[in-house]
């Protein structure tokens, strides 16, 4: 049993050693999580595509559980495009980490929405990691490499 445990630990740390949070051009991420604040509390999903070592573009959708301020029931979904600036190389971060400020532009029902955020990702394995974003909207969750 101890040998099996040891082999599994070596395999896990071996894959974790190759984990990369952002690889630049062609990098693709899907993130799923909880929206903690901003337009309301709900769930979030985003997709990012790397254009180069510094910039990625993407899209996202936040679905909110309840009304926010004066918004009616039609304003429970925020659909947006996003632009992120990845600082991994500039800050000389380990390959498992990615820090990225960014902006979101989209629509919330009939209203225009704009937001700014700073996010961080950490990958445990080559495929799976965690993320957190804070700013006008905030969210935490799981990040997947495609």
Number of self-contained structural domains: 1
Distance linking N and C termini: 34 Å
Q: How much strand content do the residues show? A: over 45%
| Count of distinct strands | 8
The topology string of helices and strands comes to HEEEEEEEE
Q: Judging from the principal axes of the Cα atoms, what is the shape?
A: globular
What is the CATH topology assignment?
A: Porin
Query: In terms of structural class, how would the helical and strand content be classed?
Result: mainly beta
Write the layout of secondary structure elements.
Layout: H1 2-17, E1 28-37, E2 42-50, E3 55-64, E4 77-85, E5 97-108, E6 111-123, E7 128-135, E8 138-145
Antiparallel strand pairs: 1-2, 1-8, 2-3, 3-4, 4-5, 5-6, 6-7, 7-8
Features of this protein?
146 residues; mainly beta; Porin; 8-stranded antiparallel β-barrel; 54% strand; globular; disordered N terminus
Can you characterise this structure?
- It is a single chain.
- The protein has one helix spanning 2-17; strands at residues 28-37, 42-50, 55-64, 77-85, 97-108, 111-123, 128-135, 138-145.
- By secondary structure, it is mainly beta.
- It has a single domain (2-145), classed as Porin (Beta Barrel).
- The protein is globular, with a radius of gyration of 17 Å.
- The protein starts with a helix and ends with a strand.
- Mean pLDDT is 84; it is low at 1-17.
How do you describe this structure in short?
This protein is mainly beta and 146 residues long. The protein has one helix at 2-17; strands spanning 28-37, 42-50, 55-64, 77-85, 97-108, 111-123, 128-135, 138-145.
């Amino acid at each position: 049993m101890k040998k099996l445990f040891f082999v599994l630990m070596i395999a896990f740390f071996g894959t974790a050693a190759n984990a990369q949070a952002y690889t630049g051009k062609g990098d693709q991420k899907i993130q799923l999580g909880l929206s903690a604040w901003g337009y309301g509390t709900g769930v979030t999903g985003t997709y990012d595509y790397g254009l180069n070592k510094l910039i990625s573009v993407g899209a996202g959708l936040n679905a909110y559980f309840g009304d926010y301020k004066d918004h009616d029931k039609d304003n429970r979904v925020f659909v947006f495009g996003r632009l992120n600036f990845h600082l991994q190389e500039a800050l000389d971060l380990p390959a498992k980490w990615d820090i990225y400020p960014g902006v979101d532009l989209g629509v919330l029902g009939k209203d225009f929405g704009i937001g700014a955020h700073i996010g961080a990702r950490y990958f445990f394995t080559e495929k799976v990691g965690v993320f957190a974003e804070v700013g006008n909207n905030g969210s935490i969750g799981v990040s997947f490499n495609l």
